[in-house]
Each structure stands twice: as C-alpha cells, then as structure tokens.
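== Polypeptide entry ==
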Amino acid sequence: MIDYFGGTVATAKVLNISKSTVSLWGEVIPWKYALLIEKLTKKNLMLEADLYQNKTIRTLKNNSL
C-alpha cells in the first residue's frame, strides 16, 4: 500500500498524518486509515474486513457501500 502512494512520506502526506505514524503500522493497517485509504483511492485499494476481528468494522464498511 505504501508503494501505491510512493513511499512512507508520500503516504503520510496523503493521509495528513505523521511519517512516524505510518512507520509504526504492522502488516495490518489500522482500520480507520484503511477506510480512509479505500475512500481516497476510490476503492483501488480496499479494506479487507476479514483482517479485523471487530464486527463494527464490517458494519461500517457495509453501510458505506
């Protein structure tokens, strides 16, 4: 995903967050950023709800469609 935007700094700028926040992400991007990325990329990059255990995430995603 970071490559999509052109690196950590570019990703941080697009999301209006700090570079260190992006650098702290593990294999799974925090859900609130994943939802934002999905919206900003017009679903070219999509949140994978199955990666998140919380049913609220799936509900939010389904309601936004």
